[in-house]
Amino acid sequence: MSMHTQTSASGFIASDPQLSQTAKGDSRFYARFGQEHYRREADGSFTQLETTYHNMVMFGRSAQRAHERFAKGDKFIAEGYTRTPEYERDGAMVAGEEEFIAKRIGHDTARTRYEVDRTPRRTAAERPTTERQAPGFEHAEPQQARSAPAMGM
């Protein structure tokens, strides 16, 4: 079986993320994101070029999770595809600005420090009814660093 690959985008969240609802009632995440561009010079140095800005959207439960976890300034890597939406304006179809539709998104590990919670997720059947109605992700409380007892000579 061949390897599954998709289009990706990386950059930084340039606007405050917004969570709204589609006409069908699904969650919709929206943020402007920036991409820094560089040119490699003959001497091996890099010259920073103009930063470009783009639209990113995400739908469903992934949109809710992204809204909980991302803030303006966060560095990310996302998988998805691009599209140019069309809108009806004054009875005519008009092409909108190209946008990136993210299916998956995560913080860029090369540019972000964070801790991973590896606690196994429980299935819906394993959770009490009240917990099933709660959001699917809770931020873990920061834990105090424990130091080993000192050994004397």
From TrEMBL:
The keyword Lipid metabolism does not apply. It comes from the Bacteria. InterPro entries: NA-bd_OB-fold, Primosome_PriB/ssb. Keywords: DNA-binding. Transmembrane segments: none annotated. One of its GO terms (molecular function) is single-stranded DNA binding. Residues 110-130 have a biased composition (Basic and acidic residues). Residues 1-20, 110-153 are annotated as: Disordered. Residues 1-10 have a biased composition (Polar residues). It holds the Pfam family SSB. Coiled coil: none annotated. This is Single-stranded DNA-binding protein. It comes from Brevibacterium aurantiacum.
